[in-house]
């Protein structure tokens, strides 16, 4: 059953080898709370520079010597709207709660990139100028990610865990932005555009896994770090440490890959395999596969709001330790070589944007 579901997943995403699994789309979220309640809500500087387009004055006809110049057509005074820089505004939380990267400012609003990667102008919203942490709930909409035999998909669990982690971080005074706030698709490019715009101190992508190698005497959590970044490795080690400690409290038949732990995965070029980590280079990032939603006993746990909270708070503790200590983390393993592609998705093909 699991294998079947997984096979379908893979089939749907064969094209997308090299990117992190992701598939989604759906109704707009109405998650109300803005991603960064602490950020200044001063609107971006309005068009301060009035685009002084040089009016092409024809040479004055005063005393034209011999030739009579034709009548000069005055240059039009109405200047077409010219995009302005958006100043400190890096990201906008739209009125429907969707988080989008800002690329410019126009008279009618902010020029943004939509979750599907299109360019659009949004008239209103909450501007975000910076963030300490960005959290990424994997998948969404028509990209469910890994699925349990009973049809429970990771996309909803990922979002719930991210929301709990964010609440805990905000409570600790850590300004936190989410790349996805509801059940809709977001391309990996848009997710990482948000990250690169905000340049947080840490970025974590949250997932739940499928296709374990077999049983394990404890949670089979896996955290991936950026191969070239010792700080990313430390972040992944701390997330591994905190989430395994929290989940180990549940006595169930866990499953895992035999190399479970804090690890890396590289592509043929020796670069990070997962697009979400590769594209976010320059920002300390980790990808967490917290447990196996494809394993029925784990799915039974993961559907519980109290367990989602346990996971989210463990993630927040790990991030706080990353920010506030030099703790090295633990659980580092040497990954065995993998040839089969991870679940695909995260591209823009057939992507339906939510209402902004
Ligand atoms: Zn996933």
Word description of this protein:
This protein has helices at residues 2-11, 154-171, 188-198, 230-247, 275-279, 296-302, 305-324, and strands spanning 91-93, 99-106, 109-113, 119-122, 126-128, 133-137, 176-178, 202-209, 214-216, 222-225, 254-256, 261-263, 285-292. The chain is 25% helix and 17% strand. The radius of gyration is 24 Å and the shape is globular. Mean pLDDT is 83; it is low at 1-67. It is an alpha/beta fold and 356 residues long. A 6-stranded mixed sheet has the order 7-6-8-13-10-12, with helices on both faces. A 5-stranded antiparallel sheet has the order 4-3-2-1-5. The protein contains 7 helices and 13 strands. It has a domain at 2-28 and 131-324: Aminopeptidase, CATH 3.40.630.40. The longest helix is centred in the C-terminal third of the chain and has 20 residues, at 305-324. Helix 2 packs across helix 7. The structure holds zinc ion.
């Amino acid at each position: 059953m699991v294998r079947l579901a997984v096979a379908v997943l893979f089939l749907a995403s064969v094209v997308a080898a090299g990117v992190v699994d992701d598939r989604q789309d759906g109704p707009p979220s109405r998650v109300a709370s803005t991603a960064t309640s602490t950020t200044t809500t001063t609107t971006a500087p309005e068009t301060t520079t009035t685009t002084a387009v040089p009016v092409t004055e024809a040479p004055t006809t005063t005393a034209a010597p011999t030739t009579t110049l034709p009548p000069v057509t005055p240059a039009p005074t109405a200047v077409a709207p010219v995009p302005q820089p958006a100043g400190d505004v890096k990201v906008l939380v739209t009125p429907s709660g969707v988080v989008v990267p800002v690329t410019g400012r126009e008279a009618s609003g902010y020029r943004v990139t939509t979750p599907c990667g299109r360019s659009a102008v949004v008239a209103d919203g909450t501007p975000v100028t910076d963030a300490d942490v960005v959290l990424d709930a994997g998948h969404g909409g028509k990209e469910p990610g890994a699925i349990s035999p009973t049809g429970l998909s990771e996309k909803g669990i990922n979002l719930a865990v991210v929301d709990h982690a964010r609440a805990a971080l905000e409570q600790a005074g850590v300004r936190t932005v989410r790349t996805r706030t509801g059940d809709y698709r977001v391309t990996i490019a848009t997710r990482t555009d948000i990250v690169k715009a905000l340049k947080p101190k840490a970025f974590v992508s949250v997932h739940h896994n499928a296709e374990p190698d077999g049983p394990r005497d404890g949670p089979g959590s896996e955290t991936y770090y950026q191969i070239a970044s010792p700080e990313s490795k430390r972040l992944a080690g701390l997330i591994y440490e905190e989430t395994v400690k929290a989940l180990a409290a549940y006595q169930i038949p866990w499953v895992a890959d035999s190399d479970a732990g804090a690890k890396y995965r590289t592509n043929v070029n020796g670069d990070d395999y997962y697009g979400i980590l590769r594209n976010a280079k320059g920002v300390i990032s980790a990808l967490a596969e917290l447990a196996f939603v494809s394993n029925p006993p784990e799915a039974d746990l993961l559907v519980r709001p109290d367990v989602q909270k346990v996971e989210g708070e463990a993630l927040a503790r790990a991030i706080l330790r990353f920010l506030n200590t030099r703790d090295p983390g633990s659980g580092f393993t040497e990954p065995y070589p993998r040839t089969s592609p991870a679940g695909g998705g995260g591209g823009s093909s057939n992507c339906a944007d939510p209402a902004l």
